[in-house]
UniProtKB/TrEMBL annotation, chains A, B:
Gene of this entry: moaD
One Pfam entry name: ThiS
InterPro entries: Beta-grasp_dom_sf, MOCS2A, Mopterin_synth/thiamin_S_b, ThiS/MoaD-like
GO molecular function, one term: nucleotide binding
PANTHER family in the record: MOLYBDOPTERIN SYNTHASE SULFUR CARRIER SUBUNIT (PTHR33359:SF1)
Top-level taxon: Bacteria
Family: Belongs to the MoaD family.
GO biological process, one term: Mo-molybdopterin cofactor biosynthetic process
Gene3D superfamilies xref list: 3.10.20.30
The name this protein goes by in its record: Molybdopterin synthase sulfur carrier subunit
TrEMBL record, chains C, D:
Keyword Kinase: no
Protein name per UniProt: Molybdopterin synthase catalytic subunit
UniProt entry tagged with the keyword Amino-acid biosynthesis: no
Pathway recorded for this protein: Cofactor biosynthesis; molybdopterin biosynthesis
GO biological-process terms attached to the record: Mo-molybdopterin cofactor biosynthetic process
InterPro entries assigned to the protein according to its UniProt record, in alphabetical order: MoaE_sf, Mopterin_biosynth_MoaE
EC category name: transferase
Protein family according to the UniProt entry: Belongs to the MoaE family.
Function: Converts molybdopterin precursor Z into molybdopterin. This requires the incorporation of two sulfur atoms into precursor Z to generate a dithiolene group. The sulfur is provided by MoaD.
Quaternary assembly: Heterotetramer of 2 MoaD subunits and 2 MoaE subunits. Also stable as homodimer. The enzyme changes between these two forms during catalysis.
GO molecular function, one term: molybdopterin synthase activity
Catalytic activity: 2 [molybdopterin-synthase sulfur-carrier protein]-C-terminal-Gly-aminoethanethioate + cyclic pyranopterin phosphate + H2O = molybdopterin + 2 [molybdopterin-synthase sulfur-carrier protein]-C-terminal Gly-Gly + 2 H(+)
Keywords for this protein: Molybdenum cofactor biosynthesis
Amino acid sequence: MKVLYFAWLRTKAGVGEEEVAPPAEVTTVGALVEWLKGRDPALAEAFADMRLIRVAVNQDYAGLDHCVGTGDEVAFFPPVTGG
Amino acid sequence: MKVLYFAWLRTKAGVGEEEVAPPAEVTTVGALVEWLKGRDPALAEAFADMRLIRVAVNQDYAGLDHCVGTGDEVAFFPPVTGG
Amino acid sequence: MIRVQAEDFDAGAELAAFASGNGRVGGVCMFLGLVRDYMGDGTEVSAMTLEHYPGMTEKQLAAIETEARRRWPLEDTLIIHRHGRLAAGDRIVLVATASAHRDAAFESCRFLMDWLKTKAPFWKIEHTSAGDRWVEAKEADESQAARWNKA
Amino acid sequence: MIRVQAEDFDAGAELAAFASGNGRVGGVCMFLGLVRDYMGDGTEVSAMTLEHYPGMTEKQLAAIETEARRRWPLEDTLIIHRHGRLAAGDRIVLVATASAHRDAAFESCRFLMDWLKTKAPFWKIEHTSAGDRWVEAKEADESQAARWNKA
């Protein structure tokens, strides 16, 4: 599974992109977030309030209950500020 | 007093512009309209329904009760269709 | 700025020059009106002629521009309106507004077009295969413009 | 058409070429977004960097464009959005729509900008005299975009 971070989340995570292999019971975005928080205190802090974070699964916006699995691309980022 | 006609009103009036000298009791747009109707059957027809006609006095929109007098420029035209 | 002219204008060059070099501008909204090659009922239009009221046109456009600048914080405004004979595809009108914020740019550009459609003394006669025909004012244009009275 | 690019674009040339030669077009609405030289609190901004999510950006912009064409009878649409480092005064984004009617052109252009502001995955970091700062999303942008959900 590929995980991407953008903007200040990328700075917090220290990387823009990483390959992760969570255990089989991680089947949703929400479970993935909890698993990532357990691996990295900086991410635990960044993910403290998930209302501030947007999620995309395979480049479409997704909620915390969205399914994720091997081969998926999951991105975390703050609300967008383009235009 | 200068009277101007535009668009299909100009066609009806047969002229785009004329100098007129109405009698002294013609002091409003409404009175001017009645006086012009009396002079010209084509204008009488054109001015039959004044709701279809817009009026400008000295290049500002004006109502039938607006004052007019010597030296004024009074224009009659259909609703505008520019842009 | 107001320009009423028979000559064509270069919309691209106007946009490139508009509000250029003003660092307070965050958004530019521009509307370009063109001569369509058909009328509402499908009749083909080969050309049209725009008659106007010289003097009053400039006066009304200047008043509309002043009103827009009173309502929104605008850095720049531009209105170009042509008159005379125009062929299908020709440019008729260009309205542009520049502001720090996109809302003000969008709203004021729309406002200028809505008022121009109902207040600027222009009249279109369409030259069609079925003969010449004065274009009638649209009820919709009046109600579009009337919206702004509430503001 | 969607273009996501680091290079500058020529707004005038884009307008000149847009929907050109299509006789069904009566109105073109265009919005051009620029880098302002100050922030909301008055701090001077010398430059900004626009980060984006390659792949998702194009996918979201294409979806927004398709939705606009579903809602309005559009003859043409164009979205250009830059990324990378931009200086004050630089062009950021251009959105253009063409339709037979000015309402559709105005509304769809506004719709595209509102959605782009809230859905397209771009993030701005401003380089100011007080240091670098990630721009925060504005509540106003969310509510502007939410308006269109009612339609």
